[in-house]
Write a structure and sequence with these properties.
The structure is a single chain. It is globular and about 70 Å long. By secondary structure, it is of the alpha+beta class. The chain is built from six helices and five strands, in the order αβααβαααβββ.
């Protein structure tokens, strides 16, 4: 009888510990969401390194690239808006894209700084400049896993706000977060416009 009481007490302590950890993770997640909203980010989400690693092939899995990381913070910045375009009235398209990429980098660095202030590791990932494989993982897959959109027939991430016209970013971190379990369903249907 005393054995079962001890076992029951031990189980209750473990349940309280897990509940406390889940509360801490939920608090961290809410704080990060508020921080990202303060950066004027409206397309972002979190996914588990483990979940995405199951989808990718060896060598391209997040767990192979960042062994310590537990979470991937995904975010998207829309292609340069009309204000940015007005700064570059006589500029080439490359100048307009450069503004958007610069904005993406600034936000990624701010996210890294925030996470490091929380005592966790964050890895700044340069997503442009060295070709599409510079990151090592496909950012559209991260966005889909984070619940920020779906992969269209054009193999690009389609977000609700920007459609396929978004630059994508990711920050791997050791911070544990609550992940988005719901996925966005494809709305492509029979449409093949992007393939023409």
């Amino acid at each position: 009888k005393s054995y079962s009481v001890r076992q029951s007490c031990k189980r209750m302590k473990e349940e309280r510990l897990v509940s406390s950890m889940n509360d801490q993770i939920a608090k961290q997640t809410r704080a990060l969401e508020q921080f990202m909203a303060s950066l004027d980010m409206d397309v972002f989400g979190f996914c588990s390194v483990e979940a995405l690693s199951k989808r990718e092939r060896p060598g391209r899995r997040p767990c192979d690239i960042w062994p310590e990381a537990k979470s991937l913070i995904f975010f998207a910045v829309g292609q340069a808006d009309s204000l940015s375009k007005s700064w570059c009235q006589e500029a080439l398209v490359g100048d307009i894209v450069a503004i958007t990429i610069n904005e993406l980098s600034i936000r990624a660095l701010k996210i890294c700084r925030y996470i490091r202030r929380q005592g966790e590791k964050a890895y700044y990932v340069r997503v442009h400049g060295d070709g599409p494989l510079a990151v090592g993982i496909r950012l559209a897959d991260v966005g889909e896993e984070a619940g920020c959109g779906y992969i269209g027939k054009n193999s690009m991430l389609i977000t609700h706000k920007y459609g396929p016209r978004a630059n994508l970013g990711v920050v791997p971190t050791t911070m544990e977060l609550l992940y988005n379990e719901r996925k966005v369903e494809s709305r492509c249907g029979n449409c093949t416009m992007c393939q023409k």
